Amino acid sequence: MYIVGGWVRDKVLGIHSHDIDIMITGISIISLYHKLADYIKSQKPHSNAIQGYNFWLKNPEKCKSNDTLMLKMHNIEMQILNPRSVPSDSSIIGVEQLVEDAKGRDFTVNALFYEVKSGIVLDLTGKGLSDVSQRLLRTPLEPMVTFSHDPIRILRGVRFLAKFPDFRITEEIKDFMLNDTEKGKLLSYVSRERIHMELQSLLNGPSPKVGVKYLCTFNLHNILFSSKTELKYLWNAQETNLSRNIISKLTQKSVLPEEREAYYLSALFLPLTLKSGTLPFSKFQMREEWRMDTKTVNNIELWCSSWKKMDSFYEQFLSANQEMSLQQVASVGMFLRELGPSWEIVKEFCAIMRKEKEGDSGLDKWEPFIQQLQAHNLIGVNPIWTMKPYYNGGELKAFGFVGKQIQKMLEMQIEWLIIHPQASKEDCYQWIIKNK
Q1: Each residue of 320-349: b (16+ CB within 10 Å) or e?
Q2: Which residues form the tRNA nucleotidyltransferase/poly(A) polymerase RNA and SrmB- binding domain (predicted)?
Q3: 295 Cβ partners below 8 Å, 6+ apart?
Q4: Among 48, 88, 90, 405, which residue's beta carbon has the most beta carbons within 10 A?
Q5: 260 neighbors 203 (Cβ within 8 angstroms)
Q6: How many whole angstroms from its chain centre is CA 390?
Q7: Spatial separation of the C-alpha atoms in residues 14 and 36, rounded to whole Å
Q8: How far is Cα 292 from Cα 262, in angstroms, rounded to an integer?
C-alpha cells in the first residue's frame, strides 16, 4: 500500500496535509466499496469513525483514469484507488507498473510514493525530490503529453503556483503555457463544470491574487471566458495588464467567503467596462456557459456596473466644491441602499480604477467624500440600507395605494427621509397624502 500525490509532497516540504490519496493492490475498488458498506452496516450504531464514503467509476471521457473510493474517516478525507496500469485484482505489482503510474501523473512533485510498510519515499520519475528541493514545477513527460492526458492539469498548475508562490515552472511548461493554440484546443475538451470547479478552488485558495495574475500572464482568462461557439478574446494586451494591476491592489476587506468568486472575477472584468460601462457578455452566458451560480452572477453585474456610478458621484462632489446638495445626497443614498454592505467592494474598485487612470491625484479628495457620506448617515453605525420607511406596504394599501404604487412609495419615503432627516412620522404622513 502506498500513499501518493500531494500528501507525500507536503511531507517532504514539512507541511501538514489532509489531502490523502492511497494506492492499493489485490482488490478492486468496487469490491472494497461493497465490503466497506457491509462493514458499516454491521457496526452501526456503535461506531461513527467512518463519517462518509462514495464511489466513482473510471470515466476516460471525463479524464477519470481510475475507479475511486472517497472515504471520510476520523475527520480525514481520503481517496483510495488502484494503480492506473495494473489490473484492479492483481495481487502483485512491480516497479515497472509503479514507474508507469508515476509518469502518468501531473507533476513530478506530485508523483512521489510513500510506502506505508517501510516508511520510504519513492521517487520513480527520478526528479520529484530534487524538484521539491529546487521549488520547480515540472511535468513527468513532455508538457503537451501530460496535459493531453487531462487538460484540466493546465489550471491545476496555476492553482499549484498560487498555493506555493515560491515554486517556478520549467521553460518547457512556460513555452506550452504561452502557446494559446495548443492550450486552447486542449481546454476545449474539458467540460465547463470542471473548469468552473477549478476556478472556484483557485479563488477560494490561499493566494487567489497570485492565481488570477497567472491566468492573465498565460492568457488563460481569454480562453476560459470565451464563447462556446468561437474563441474570441475579450481582453486586449492593455486591458489584460490593467486587470493584472487591479488584482494586485485588492485588499479583500469586507468580502464574505461566499463572495470571493464574484469579487476576484469582477476585478478581472473591470477593464472590460471602460468602453461602454457594461460587461460585454450577458448574465445568461455567465450562468449557462461558465456555470456560475445566480448570486455570483448578480454580484458581478452589480459591482462591475456600480463603480462608474460611484465615480460619477465623486466627480459631482468635486464639481460642487466638495459640498453635495440634499438631492445629490439622496441619489447617493439610494445607490448605496441598493449595494448594501457590498458598497465597500465598489468603493475599493472605484478607488483602484481612479488611481490607475490618474495616479494619486485622482483620489485627492476621496477621504472628504467618504466623510460626507458618513455625515449624512448614509454609511456608518446605522447605514442607509438598514433604514425602514415610516409606513409599510400594508399601511400604504390602507391609504389607497395599489400594486406598483406601493413599492414606488416605499422607495420615495426613504429618499424623502434622507432629505428630511428630522421629519416626524406625522410629517411623513402629510407628505404621502399630498403626493398620493
Answers
A1: eeeebeeebbbbbbbbbbebeebbebbbbb
A2: 166-225
A3: 258, 262
A4: 88
A5: yes
A6: 40
A7: 32
A8: 9
d(CA 120, CA 234) in angstroms, rounded, equals: 50
Res. 103 pLDDT band, cuts 50 70 90: very high
Grid cell at residue 296: 455570483
Residue 120 phi/psi, 5-degree rounding, is: -100, 140
Q: How far apart are CA 108 and CA 5, in angstroms?
A: 9
Work out whether strand 76-81 and strand 20-23 pair parallel, antiparallel, or are unpaired.
Answer: parallel
152 backbone dihedrals φ, ψ, rounded to 5° = -65, -15
C-alpha cell at 306: 456600480
Question: What distance in Å separates the CA atoms of residue 309 and residue 282, rounded to the nearest whole number?
Answer: 20
Residues 411-431 pLDDT 10s? 999 999 999 999 999 999 999
- Exposure string of 50-63, with b = 16+ CB inside 10 Å and e = fewer, is eeebebbeeeeeee
Grid cell for residue 160: 499549484
250, 209 Cβ separation under 8 angstroms: yes
Confirm if 43 and 35 have CB atoms less than 8 A apart.
Answer: no
For 153-194, what is each residue's pLDDT tens digit? 999 999 999 999 999 999 999 999 999 999 999 999 999 999
Domains with residue ranges and CATH for the chain: 1-134 (3.30.460.10), 142-233 (1.10.110.30), 248-384 (no CATH), 393-434 (no CATH)
Beta bridge partners, 71, equal: 53, 78
Q: Please give the Cα distance from 361 to 412 (Å, whole number).
A: 37
Strand order in the sheet with 112-115: 50-56, 68-73, 76-81, 20-23, 2-4, 112-115, 120-123
The Cα–Cα gap between 101 and 90 comes to: 15
Assign 272 to helix, strand or coil.
helix
Q: Which residue has the cell 473548469?
A: 195
Supply the pTM of this predicted model. Answer: 0.88
Q: What percent of the chain has pLDDT over 70?
A: 93
The alpha carbon of residue 48 and the mean position of all alpha carbons in its chain are separated, in whole angstroms, by: 33
CB of 407 closer than 8 Å to CB of 369: no
